Structures are given as C-alpha cells and as structure tokens.
Amino acid sequence: QLEGHDTFLHKEIHEQPTSLERMLSGRLDDRFATARLDGLGIDARELRGFRRVKAIGCGSSFYIGQLGASMIEDLARIPADAEAASEFRYRNPIVEPDTLYVAVSQSGETADTLFAVREIQRKGGCVVGLVNVVGSSIARECDGGIYLHAGPEVSVASTKVLTHMGVGFALLALLLGRVHDLSYADGARIVAGLRALPGQVQQMLDSEDEIAVVAKGLAQSPSSFFIGRVRGYAVAREGAQKLKEISYQHAEAYQASELKHGPLALISPQMPTVAIVPDDELVERNLGALHEIAARSGPVIAVTHPGVEFGDLAAERIVVPHGEVELDPIVLTIPLQLLAYHAAAALGRDIDRPRNLAKSVTVE
Ligand code: F6R
Predict the structure, then answer these.
(1) 357 CA to middle of ligand 1, Å?
(2) Ligand 1 pocket test: which of 133, 142, 158, 242 has the largest number of ligand atoms within 8 Å of its C-beta?
(3) Residue 105 contacts residue 113 (beta carbons within 8 Å)
(4) Which of 9, 18, 253, 262 is such that its CA lies 20 to 30 A from the CA of 271?
(5) In 230-240, which positions are buried (b, 16+ CB within 10 angstroms) versus exposed (e)?
(6) Burial class (CB in 10 A: 0-12, 13-18, 19+), 142
C-alpha cells in the first residue's frame, strides 16, 4: 500500500496534486464565476442572510479554520473567525441565528468538535461540516456540508486533508463572496487560482530535495519559532504543530508582530525561526520582523515567494509558487509538511505513529 514511499505520511503528502484535482472536479462554475457546493443545502438567499462565519475544530483542523476565516473575510467581506472546538462548548457560547458555523474535521469523530456541533444546534444555530470521512458522526449530524474527498489518511499526523480543508474554505469563501459583493472578475480570478493549485502543489513537491537539506539543519535545533502575520500566521501555527508532532522538537508559532512583545528575548544563534513571508501587502512588515531577528543573530529560514528581497536577512530560503494572494497560504503549507517529514526522518522518528497521539480523539 505504500507504493514505493517509506511512510504513509510521505505517500499522503505526494498524493495531494491528484487528490486536489478530484476534490475540485465539478465544483468550479466558470459561467457564474463561483463554486458549486450542493451538499451545503443552503440556497443563495439564505447564504446572503449570514452576517458572520465561525469555524470550529481541534488541533490542525482549528488552524486551518483560522486560515479559512481569513479567506472568508478577504473574499466575502463578512466577519469570520475560528475557535478551538474544545474550548467553545465550555464557555456557554452565544449562538447567533445569522452566523454560519463550520465544523472542521478529518475523521468526523472528534468528540470535542461533535459536542460543539450539538451545542450549536441545541441553541438553534446552523452548522455545516468540512469533513473527510463520509458518513462519520459530524458529517451526519451537521445541517449540510462539503466533503473533502481526500481519500483515506492513514498517518496519524494530518497533511493532505488539511490542504483539502484549505480548498474547502476557499470554495466556501468564493460562494459567500459571490452572493455578497465579490465581483465577477474577482470570482473568475479565484476560480482560475483554484484550478492552478494542484500544479503549484506539484511544483512544490518537485523541490523536495532542497527542502530535505534545510530540514536536516532544522532537526538539529531542539527549539524553533515559526512566525507569520494574518494569513501567514495560521500557516506558521500548522507548521509548528507538524514539526512538534512527528519530530518531537519543540516549535512555537507566533504572530510576527508579537515577537517584539516578549519572545524576542529567546532569539539567539541557537534559535532558528521559520518565517512565512508571502509576497502580499504585509511583506515589508514581515521583513521588519526579520531585521529584529537578524540584529540578535537568529538564523532564519524564509518560506516565501519569488522576488522577495531578503538581502542577508535569511540564510535559507524556500521559494513557493505565487498565485492569488487569498489562496497562497494553502500552497505555503506544503513545504512545512516536507520540513517536518524530513526533520523527523533525520531524527529516526516513528513518523506514521508518533508517540502519545491517536488518529481520532473520541474522548473529551
Ligand atoms: C494534526 C492532527 C490533529 C487533528 C485533530 C483534529 O496533525 O492530526 O491535530 O487535526 O485531532 O482531528 P479531526 O480533524 O479528525 O477532527
């Protein structure tokens, strides 16, 4: 079943271009420059009535929810945020009828997310699922949803399904955008951007050998920072999570803007920073944070787009294909999967079955 790969994680990372093509097939509507998401079971008029979106999920699914919220704010211009489902249900949440709740889960069986879904429904809210496993509890109990069609994910740490979740949010953001104020031209731009995604992911996978070299260096550091801003912050959180889970090296994600409010004290030649620096409106601000790190001799691995000028701010650079800014975070997560995989491989870890973790957490 490994089909020539040494682990399921590696196989699943490499399946992404094909599995993403499959997920997108039939869901892009060129005529109206929108997404076709029949499984949501919500018509355009009802969709227009939602004034807010809240994503809930656990672990990596929560981080992708954060990324999704920023896509929804970018494209639909309605307030959106994400919350850990494990916290949500314990704070007697205020459930509003004009909020669309999105439950995000690979397995569809995570207890914390399932109970949050029930709490929302008990209080009269509408919740849709972004779920991979067909017929799972969350998929069945939600009012509608978007199946991720990533195929089975065997490795305990999630990779390909998270990318599919990113695409699921992009489709939802496009649809919500088009029933609100997103122009036809911008809709068409996003449709074309989504169609280009599987090819961009493949391009990234083709750079695996270079990323493996960087990963071997990173594996030597017992601790590292991952930083990003806004869209890039969710990417940084997921990158740090993946490294922790499978290499057991400590990694902590911060908003690049927060570095100077405390964690800068830890920057030294022994503390590398993986910096997510997309070529977007925040690029200068991100470079500003790198100046602070360079001034304290902190080594930087930049995950970035072609053409961003670092001077001597980043010793290592991983260059990711640049598409539409709203969708770019999806592709930016791919090198972080490879970084974690190769760091864990260099340390001889049990990559598919990391210690203390289970694929599906069905207890609270
Ligand atoms: C990370 C990981 C976990 C899951 C989390 C939620 O690699 O696998 O953080 O993302 O336990 O699981 P699902 O998505 O099945 O609800």
Answers:
(1) 10
(2) 158
(3) yes
(4) 9
(5) bbbbbbbbbbb
(6) buried
Nearest Cα residue to atom 11 of ligand 1? 59
Q: Which of 64, 102, 106 is the best mutation target for the ligand 1 pocket, counting ligand atoms within 8 Å of the beta carbon and taking the most? A: 106
Q: How far is the CA of 129 from the centre of ligand 1 (A)?
A: 15
- Please report, for residues 17, 27, 44, 316, the alpha-carbon distance to residue 139 in angstroms, rounded to integers and kept in the order given: 25, 19, 22, 42
pLDDT digits (tens, 9 = 90+) for 208-235: 999 999 999 999 999 999 999 999 999 9
Residue 133 Cα: closest atom of ligand 1: 15
353-359 — which CB contacts under 8 Å span 24+ positions?
A: 353/156, 354/156, 354/157, 354/245, 354/246, 354/248, 355/248, 357/156, 357/157, 357/245, 358/156, 359/107, 359/153, 359/156
Rounded Cα distance between 127 and 132, Å, is 16
333 C-beta closer than 6 A to ligand 1:
no
Weakest mean pLDDT among 18-27, 57-66, 354-363: 354-363
Helices 328-346 and 59-76, interaxial angle, to 10°?
A: 160
pTM of the prediction?
A: 0.97
Going by C-alpha positions, the residue among 59, 40, 63, 64 that lies closest to residue 172 is 40
101, 73 contact by CB (below 8 A): no
Q: How far apart are CA 323 and CA 190, in angstroms?
A: 10
pLDDT per residue over 291-347, tens digit each?
Answer: 999 999 999 999 999 999 999 999 999 999 999 999 999 999 999 999 999 999 999
Instruction: Write down the residue that tokens 């669309």 correspond to.
Output: 100
Q: Which one of 107, 112, 146, 363 would you pick to mutate in the ligand 1 pocket, going by the greatest count of ligand atoms within 8 A of its CB?
A: 107
ipTM above 0.85, yes or no: yes
Task: Tell me phi and psi for residue 81, to 5 degrees.
Answer: -150, 175
How far is it, in rounded angstroms, from Cα 298 to Cα 307? 23
Structure token pair of residue 187 = 């809709």
Do 27 and 39 form a contact (C-beta atoms < 8 A)?
no
* β-strands 80-84, 52-57 pairing: parallel
Q: Dump strand ranges (E) for 73-167.
A: 80-84, 99-105, 126-131, 144-147
Task: Give the 3-state secondary structure percentages of the chain, helix then strand then coil, rounded to 5.
Answer: 50, 15, 35
